[in-house]
Design a protein that fits this description.
Blueprint (H helix, E strand, L loop, with lengths): L3 E5 L2 E5 L5 E2 H4 L10 E7 L8 E4 L6 E4 L10 E4 L7 E3 L11 E6 L4
Length: 110
């Protein structure tokens, strides 16, 4: 199991990530194959957690890097303003503690 996944009101919420996570294999049925994103938000479980999300595969460019956080309350967010992003989490590049959460938010046209 790569993550616990919940879709809610234009957001995809990932928790308990314990393996690689690939949008192409895990996307909700109503989401597009190449989504336009508003943001990616990382809520760490503990100090020194780090989330890295790449474009499409583990060999592609990094689109989000939280850096090592100071504490569990040190959330990070990156805005994409409608850019097309194909999120891929390479678990081996991340440092994750219990209680972490990633929120991927779809872009909504104004």
């Amino acid at each position: 199991m790569a993550a616990t996944q919940l879709e809610t009101d234009g957001c995809l919420i990932l928790t308990a990530i314990d393996a690689d996570w690939d949008y192409k294999a895990s996307k909700p049925g109503t989401w597009p194959p190449l989504p336009r994103l508003n943001s990616i938000e990382f809520h760490p479980g503990a100090a020194s957690d780090r989330m890295i999300i790449k474009q499409g595969s583990d060999a592609d460019a990094t689109r989000f890097d939280s850096g090592a956080v100071e504490s569990a309350g040190d959330s990070r967010i990156k805005y994409f303003n409608g850019a097309r992003v194909l999120p891929y989490i390479d678990y081996g590049d991340c440092v994750l503690s219990a209680g972490h959460k990633v929120i991927i938010e779809l872009w909504r046209d104004p």
